């Protein structure tokens, strides 16, 4: 492999990183809010609302993202007259918004299920304890249910974010020149698929590495009760060490 | 017989059989890679079979080479790496001979020529692009090409133009129309056709043969070919069979077969059948 060529490729591919990050950030942020909403709908007491949420999850988890992007972009493009009439064409005209819409709808379905799992894993005695303190439903949610649910959901949710980073590579089929789109372009210029894809893979690896660190930090922050290093318990002066570590970490929360 | 001599016999006979099989199999079956999404060169019909000008031609060429053809569909993006990787032995995918490609692979003699133009809505100002109906060679008509392109520039300014990414069109835009309009690279020509019909882009730039075939369909009745047909130099020295550099014997076979298909009028006949126009290269 030719190193100077690899460096050129790497630099060229880096110009696609902002678009990849935009696609991931916008769609996961929207997907997080919609996913939380969907999780509540999925647990609603109304059968109709539950059915809607279940159907949504079934459809968007059950079909490939590639097909969803195609249908939203090329499929809806065939109804451009109707979309013009109802004033939505400015949105669907742009590949950027179509890609974000497809990614958002897709991640919402997965996120909804992840959050539902998190919310349902909150031990009921904790909720009871909160009620015994006279917390209102909102305060109970903010102080007890949400932090615990988020903590439980984080490992699965970090998976979803990582999958989203990789899913953005599909945006290249709707002419978005993100990392993979640029990689395809470079390959067709030089036909050196191995070098180009190795560089692209390295960039994705760095992006996912950063994300996993961030989520790990968030998990650490939300789980003070798990921070005690089990090795300390084996030490004779373990109690002292534990007290010290607790004192140090209580400042953080 | 001692074990070691027995081993020698086994090894020697295995090599002999393998060698014989290889010599016998050499180009008895030729696997041909094509895109399957480039109408009418090669495309996939409703039943999922790949058909088109190149499939008919491949069968005729293989018959001339006393070989069996096997068509392999492959996305355009990976079509050259897959040839060099051994997924198939030859490419017939409307691929032009270019210097850039010659660095990676070898080509047979051309079996067709192809010119490229803009495809635009009938009522668009772009329909007035200069040179419509004329074919210009980037090399031999260099002066006229320059003049025509200067006339194009004000009309194309700021427009969004769709094309198939990773093709010679990339190189052409880079060299002659850099930063004049917004580029949108598609994976297949079918995709930019759809977006042209949807009004997401102002024009497409594609091979005239592909444009002619697309605009014959009823949903494209409001679109026309505009501007001069461009060919030659970086826009391709002709459509040819792409081959690995390590297979000069296969190249010789293809050259001979194409020559005979040009001479006996097979290529002209297939060209009329699939394109409705003559794409036969000069002898």
From TrEMBL, chain A:
PROSITE patterns per record: ABC_TM1
GO biological process, one term: amino acid transport
Membrane topology annotation: Multi-pass membrane protein
Superkingdom, taxonomy of origin: Bacteria
Xref: CDD domains: TM_PBP2 (cd06261)
UniProt keyword terms in alphabetical order: Cell inner membrane, Cell membrane, Membrane, Transmembrane, Transmembrane helix, Transport
TM helices/strands, residue ranges: 20-41, 53-76, 163-184, 196-215
A Pfam family matched in the record: BPD_transp_1
Chief place where the protein resides: membrane
Compartments (UniProt record): Cell inner membrane; Cell membrane
InterPro entries recorded: AA_ABC_transptr_permease_3TM, ArtM/GltK/GlnP/TcyL/YhdX-like, MetI-like, MetI-like_sf
MF GO annotations: transmembrane transporter activity
GO cellular component, one term: ATP-binding cassette (ABC) transporter complex
Residue ranges constituting the ABC transmembrane type-1 domain according to the UniProt record: 17-215
Transmembrane helix among keywords: yes
Keyword RNA-binding (UniProt): no
Similarity comment: family membership: Belongs to the binding-protein-dependent transport system permease family. HisMQ subfamily.
NCBIfam families: HEQRo_perm_3TM
Record's protein name: ABC transporter permease
UniProt lineage: Bacteria, Pseudomonadati, Pseudomonadota, Alphaproteobacteria, Hyphomicrobiales
TrEMBL record, chain B:
Cleaved signal peptide residues: 1-23
Residues annotated as domain Solute-binding protein family 3/N-terminal: 29-278
InterPro entries, per the entry: Iontro_rcpt_C, SBP_3_CS, Solute-binding_3/MltF_N
Keywords recorded for this protein, A-Z: Signal
A Pfam family matched in the record: SBP_bac_3
GO cellular component, one term: cell envelope
Domain of life: Bacteria
Record localization: Cell envelope
GO MF annotations in UniProt: ligand-gated monoatomic ion channel activity
Residue ranges constituting the Ionotropic glutamate receptor C-terminal domain according to the UniProt record: 29-277
Coiled coil: none
UniProt xrefs under Gene3D superfamilies: Periplasmic binding protein-like II
Main location (coarse class): other
SUPFAM superfamilies per record: Periplasmic binding protein-like II (SSF53850)
Family: Belongs to the bacterial solute-binding protein 3 family.
Annotated protein name in UniProt: Transporter substrate-binding domain-containing protein
Native source organism of the sequence: Pseudaminobacter soli (ex Zhang et al. 2022)
